[in-house]
Here is the input.
Amino acid sequence: MKLIDNLLSMFYPRLCAGCGDALQRHEECLCLHCQLHLPETQFYKEKDNPLKLIFAGRVKVEEVAALLYYKKGTATQHILHNLKYNGQKELGDFLGNYFGRKLALEPRFQDVDTIIPIPLHPRKERKRGYNQSEWIAKGLSRGMGIPYRTDVLTRTHFTETQTRKSRFNRWENVKEVFQVQNGAEVKGQHLLVCDDVLTTGATMEAAIRQLLEIEGVRVSVVTLATATH
Ligand SMILES: [Zn+2]
Here is the structure.
């Protein structure tokens, strides 16, 4: 087996998603160096962290946290790019699990009942072959020992031009994008919405607003990365 493994890795080396170096046999997704030097925010330990301000005065959220700082040219940028555009969905599971094990130790996240990934538009998902947020949810679910559901929050309209619009227009554009199904099954729960990256929060806000329509629901947010420092 070892010989076959070695031969395979000679022709098809598995590469680190952070730096692109070849992975050692025992390494998964990220090399040891990248794992030890991940630019972690530690926001999940702070009740009033800068990410919470993104939603202040806009929508009610319980807790907000992101695992990594996002900056151009860093390992985080390579990781997110590989997760979204290079078919490396296992990265979402890997980092979701890593983050989930940390969150499971934080009292403020211990009463979460269900994890909800931000859905991708079906057309985009078909093209990509997967929804990266769902793979993050899968990892978080393992790490936290809490189930995730993809049948509660679904998408309606396509928002291709979103990135060219201002924050106000962007909100106009995304507000009808999400809808809730099976709401009765998560009534009264603390829901943890997850996504790959948190920027202006417009998409996340639209999703949270829909979920808050469900009776007795509280919502928290986690993402793998954030540009906010
Ligand atoms: Zn690396």
